[in-house]
Amino acid sequence: MDRRATAEEKLIGEAIGEDEIFAATGCNLDASHVLPKILWLKNHTAILKNTYKLLVPASYILFFLTGKFGLDVLPQTELEFFLVYVSTISMWREHDKEEEFQSGTKSYHH
Questions:
Q1: Mind giving me the DSSP string for 14-25?
Q2: Is residue 97 within a helix (H) or strand (E), and if so which, with residue range?
Q3: What is the residue-wise DSSP string for 38-89?
Q4: DSSP annotation of 91
Q5: Which of 16, 38, 93, 110 fits a 20 to 30 Å CA distance from 87?
Q6: Distance from C-alpha of 17 to C-alpha of 82, rounded to nearest angstrom
């Protein structure tokens, strides 16, 4: 197993919480899973700057054969990626709104 993303695994665990990830996905947080690997690519390479889509092998085969993008959401690591990704994006957006609000750089009206 590829274990290069242990620092990213720790970062995700601190930001979201291992218990929350397990509760949401049924999967443990591990450096060999998709999200830590993507964060490792982001933190250690420039490859994501020119990347249009990230595909798991089955999705690449589907695209190669049909020209359409798709994803089988049943495999747990793929499902974990999407659930954690959505949670992380939501958390970051809320954090950014709070920082902007506190710094006075943006006002929010209801």
A1: HHT-HHHHHHHH
A2: helix 76-103
A3: HHHHHHH-SGGGG-S----HHHHHHHHHHS-------SHHHHHHHHHHHHHH
A4: H
A5: 110
A6: 16
Q: What are 52's two structure tokens?
A: 């249009």
- Where b means 16+ CB within 10 Å and e means fewer, 2-27 reads eeebeebbeebeeebeeeebeebbeb
Place of tokens 């506190």: 102
Residue 37 near residue 3 (C-beta atoms within 8 A): no
Is the CB of residue 80 less than 8 Å from the CB of residue 34?
Answer: yes
> Tell me: the pLDDT tens digits for 51-93?
888 887 888 999 999 999 887 666 555 556 666 666 665 555 5
Q: Which of 59, 78, 79 has its CA nearest to residue 69? A: 59
**Mean pLDDT throughout 8-35?**
86
